[in-house]
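Hello again, I could really use a second opinion on something today. I owe you a coffee for this, so here goes:
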Amino acid sequence: MFLVLALAVVFIRTCRNSNFSTADNANEKNSPGKEVNRNRGFDRRTSFLEYTQHARCRMACRQITEEEVKEVMQTGNINYRKTDVHDRPCPTYAVEGITHDNQRVRIVFAQCDFKTKVVTTIDLDKEWACDCPGDQR
C-alpha cells in the first residue's frame, strides 16, 4: 500500500513540474528578462525588436515596413561576410531576404541580451536617395 502511495506522489509531482515548465517556456518567448542566452547565435524572436532613428529613416526612404523587417528576421539568411559577431557592445547580424513585395533587402540587427535593435535597412537592388541623420559620417 505504501509503495502505491509513493508512486502516486511521484507521478503527481512529475506531471505538475512538466506543466510548470511548459508554462515557463511559453512565457519565455515573450519575456525579455527570462534567462535567455542570446549570445549564442541569432535569436529570430521579434518580441525583442527596437528600431534606431537611422533604421526608421532608411525604412521610410526605402519603403520597407516593420512587417517586412520581421518577415526577413524570421525567414532570411544570415550573410556572415557582412556580420560581426564580435561587434561591441552587441553582435551585429546582416540578414538578407526577399519581402512579400519582392524587394531584395539586407537588414542589420544588433542583438544584445534583452533587445534586438534594427540598425539599418538596405535595398540590395536599387539605390535610394536618402537623407538620414548620420549619413555625413
